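Q: I'm building a small set of examples for a reading group on sequence design. Run inverse folding on the following structure and report the sequence directly after it, with nothing in between.
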């Protein structure tokens, strides 16, 4: 059965590419789909044609698929995983194919307000990832409140560091066409592995990864 995960937010193409790479190293066939207006995800490969599947470094990419195309791929189990990149406005009905939704954004208030008000079906498992340069006690408390308001279960919201190393990795994605999976900080890798575990082993005991304290978990 094809696993479908949607990503909603801003500048998350490097995260999606790294998750796709991790899955491909598990010998999973992965399709990355770009629904965003600026095509940030598609800009991480040298050449692409809108609406046509392109293979690059063991992953498959598709920008602006035709209506019904993703549903067909899901029904035929063409891919093990389909990771879909959405803007903050999810106008495409393909979002309803997702079993899991990841909200990934920075701490800018206008982004958080949009994220908090996005409604998705209750059948979808929700995750929240915030990229921050610095996590204070006050922001930790604030983050827990945001997750609660969104109905994100404890253990499914995360803090991902955002600094010079992460900015360089984004540049590698779009200017060197490199998937910086091996160069990811350990916390980002842990988050990605946690998401993969939840998708591939839903019945197993999950890692208790929240934001703050010693292992970047919120206490």
């Amino acid at each position: 059965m094809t696993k479908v995960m949607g990503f909603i937010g801003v500048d998350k193409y490097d995260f999606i590419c790294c998750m796709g790479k991790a899955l491909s190293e598990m010998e999973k066939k992965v399709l990355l789909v770009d629904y965003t207006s600026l095509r940030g995800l598609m800009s991480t490969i040298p050449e692409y044609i809108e609406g046509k599947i392109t293979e690059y470094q063991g992953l498959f990419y598709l920008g602006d698929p035709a209506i019904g195309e993703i549903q067909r791929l899901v029904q035929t189990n063409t891919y093990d995983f389909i990771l879909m990149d959405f803007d903050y406005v999810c106008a495409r009905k393909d979002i309803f194919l997702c079993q899991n939704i990841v909200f990934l954004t920075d701490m800018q208030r206008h982004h958080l307000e949009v994220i908090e008000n996005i409604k998705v079906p209750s059948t979808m498992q929700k995750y929240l990832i915030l990229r921050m340069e610095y996590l204070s006690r006050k922001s930790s408390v604030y983050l827990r409140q945001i997750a609660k308001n969104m109905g994100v279960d404890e253990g499914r919201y995360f803090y991902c560091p955002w600094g010079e190393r992460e900015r360089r990795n984004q540049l590698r994605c779009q200017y060197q066409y490199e998937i910086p999976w091996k160069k990811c900080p350990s916390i980002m890798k842990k988050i990605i592995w946690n998401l993969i575990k939840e998708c591939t082993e839903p019945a197993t005991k999950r890692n208790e990864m929240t934001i703050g304290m010693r292992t970047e978990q919120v206490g």
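The first strand starts at residue 3 and ends at 9.
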